[in-house]
Amino acid sequence: MDQSEFAARREAFMSEMGPGVAVLPSAPVALRNNDVTHDYRQDSDFFYLTGFDEEESVLVLSSEHPEHRSVVFVRERNKEREIWDGKRAGVDGAKERLGVDAAFPIEELDKRLPDYLGDVRRLHYRLAVNAVFDERIFRALAAVRGKARTGVVAPSEIVDLSRDLHELRLRKSSAELDMMERAGAISREAHARAMAVAKPGAYEYEVEAEIMRVFRARGAERPAYGSIVGSGPNATILHHRRNDRLMEEGDLLLIDAGAELGYYASDVTRTFPVSGRFTDAQRAIYDLVLDAQLAAIEAVKPGVSYMVVHDAAVEVLAAGLVKLGLIEGPVDEAIEEKRYSPFYMHKTSHWLGMDVHDVGDYFVDKEPRKLEPGFVLTVEPGLYIAEDAEVDAKWRGIGVRIEDDVAVTEDGYRNLTPDIPKAADELERILADR
What global pTM score does this model have? Predict the structure, then answer.
């Protein structure tokens, strides 16, 4: 993504936050075990404003400073450490690459930060996210207060910067939507590969391995979340993560897996029979979920509440469950009393963006938020009938979820994950050709 995109975001954020200084630290390094760390992923807020993925970095934005509106503190170049850990941008490199007004070594943060906070009424910072960095902020504030006898005034307010920043992140630019569509294309290929290799006698983790291979082979930095590969009864577990079951003849396989590309997530779920054909009971549940998903997607448009999307799915699911005899009618009472909830216990959508469960309020003034152009949400109804559910035996152990990523446009919607097969007849044709 072009650096001008990040510069424009910084300006937009400073305009929203108003007078004051904002401080955003990079994500801390997380220890995995002993002296080995987890693979590093930058904090989404920090990356959104910088496009910079090095650890031990801090961004300072000031509407008060006469020269330095944007400043970064970064690690200096270090030949010895770069042999072990890879190249660093360094102070000069970061300033040039990011287009900020100034850059300093991270070691100088404690000395310089009080200067940026002096005579500033409002500090924009997100407390209680990074306790270690909170202490650095408190020390900087104490240092500013220590200058009171020289006439320097310390900030009197600390404002959570996430509200203004997350409102910006909620509305995706054309560059962001294109990146998310590219991530979706990688996910499409991964799901196609999964359908090709998922057969009775294979393990769930073998399918997961193929998904991961496609992600990396096509340039995705990582999965957007831990892949769910649940067969048979595991498909009824919403966040099944062990992925260790041997798939058997007659199983449905639910795969919830999405690539992350350029720090943008895709989130896709498909369900199909590993043996190639649905049983009658599986097909009935599958078609019902697909009908619900299609109805929910069609409900996406500007000006409607995101709950309208959920309600559209619930209406179809409840009516279908009544018709199949899985819950009692009439349908309106079944919806009002949530009789469907033992089989459909989650909402239909969540925001999607840099985080798979992305930022942004779902309620405004205690009312469900209305959709706007640039919002991206998942549409993912499902039905999960546990092995021990008190229903006819033919339904037990069936789990189905179908999910796509949908952007709100000026006059409707744009599916960012199109062409991933989901019609039952199409799935059976593809599976028969393996």
Answer: 0.96
